[in-house]
Amino acid sequence: MSFRSDEDETRPLAPTLGLIALLLLAFVGLSAVTDPAPQKVTIAGEASSAP
């Protein structure tokens, strides 16, 4: 019975993580489309001010 309880606890997390991953992928994809030049992709966007 404990297995069932664990599943119920971790179940709502799966879709949330998937959504976050999808959003991240979409953001990176949009960034790549907006910047045709292949540059290092940094989460903080430090490479934006590259010479």
Taking all Cα atoms into account, the compactness measure Rg is 18 Å
Report the end-to-end length measured between terminal Cα atoms.
60 Å
The total strand number stands at 0
Number of helices: 2
Order of helices and strands: HH
Main structural class: mainly alpha
Shape: rod-shaped
Helix content: 55-70%
Strand content: under 5%
The structural domain count equals 1
Pick out the low-confidence regions: none
Mean pLDDT: 67
Q: Main beta sheet: strand number and arrangement?
A: none
Report on this structure:
- With 51 residues, the chain is mainly α.
- It has one domain.
- Helix content is 61%, strand content 0%.
- The N and C termini lie far apart (60 Å).
- The model has no long low-confidence stretch (mean pLDDT 67).
Could you name the key traits of this structure?
mainly alpha, 61% helix
Provide a brief overview of the structure:
The protein is mainly alpha-helical and 51 residues long. It has helices at 2-10, 13-34.
Secondary-structure map:
Blueprint: H1 2-10, H2 13-34
